[in-house]
Structure formats: C-alpha cells, structure tokens
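HUMAN:
Could you generate one sequence with tokenized structure?
ASSISTANT:
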Amino acid sequence: MNERTSGKERWRRGALWTAALLAGLLLMPPTGAAQEKKKKEVKEDYSKHAGYVDFASMGLFGEEEAVVEIYLHDALLAMVASMSKNAEPELSDMLGKLKLVRVQKFRLGDANLPAVESKVSDLAGKLEKGGWVCAVRVREENDNVYVYFKMGEKLLSGITVMAVENGETATFVNIVGDIDPEQIGRLGKKFDIDELHNLKDWEHGAKDKAHDESKEKPESKEKPEKK
C-alpha cells in the first residue's frame, strides 16, 4: 500500500487546488451547456437523488467550519468538464453527468475523536441498510476508512467516502450523478480525493493481507477415523 499524504499536506494541497480551480473557472468563458444551465438554474434539491448523503444530519462538528471544503454543483461541473475535454475526454464526459461533488475536511482533537468515529460507524451501518455497497473498509490503529457505492443499472449513482486518518483529520466526500466505475481513479485524482485515487491500492493491500493471513494459518489435517 502506498504511503498516504499527511494531514497538513492534504489541507494545503486541497486549498491550493480549490483556489486554482476557482481561478480557472472565473477566467474561462462559459460554455454553451453551462450558459443553458444558468438560464434554467433553479436551486436543485440534491437530497432527492439516490446517491446523496446528508452528512450535516450527523451533527458532528456543529458550527465549526471545514478546513477544506469543495462544493461543485452541476453548472460548475459542466465548466470543469469543458476544461478537461481535450486532455481527458472520457473523464470529461462523466463530469458532465455529475450533479454534485462535495468534499469536507475537518481537524480532529482528542475531545471529539471518539464521537466522530462512533457516528461514522453508525452512518456506515445506515448506508448498508439503505442499499449502499461497501467497496473499501479499512480499520487500522489510527485510521478508519469507508468507501461506499450506490449502484445504478449500469453506472454508479453515488459515491460516499468517510475517513478518519491519523486521529487528526476527518474527511467526508459525497459525489452524486452518473459515475463510470472505470473513471473513479481519475475522478479521485481530479478532485484530490486520495481514498478514490488510491482505490486500487486499497484493494490490492486488502487482498495481499488476506492472502498473507491465509498462508500463516496452519492447514487443518483431518485425523483418520478409528475403526
């Protein structure tokens, strides 16, 4: 498994990424699709979409502001898609079909760490009861990471990430829309979501660990029955 980026570095990188993205959007002339969406723009209730998760209802951080917050609705995502069209046409096509990308990162302290971990675990259970499929679950000494997919007929309709890392940061991600599973890694890289960018690493790490554990277990030998 690759070594993951430290919490402070991720905050800095996330802030720089957000600033660069906003600067690019401001300098870029609106595309036809974005202009059309703006004309018809009515505040959409994203909670009606199958892939939406309401983290606010967990009441984890009260009025505390996130250290890093990315909130891109469909009109902004259409612009991001246009910016990516030449370099990554397949990813661009998928970005144009997304409704919402929301990323929030919070600092943790000793006082709220146990409560956050408990509520994250509770929400994971609720997601599974609600038909979400757990793609990654990692529980290590200082890390708890959950990645869930909401399955559609052919594409995913939502991705949810909840990660408590090093006992220092809590990251919550919700992506809503039609998502091509083949583009998840690129999507993670585009929006600086390590848990999605490194999804294959998590999978390989889990498989390797399971393989190693199976090799360590002694083979059970059946004793011949006494006649």
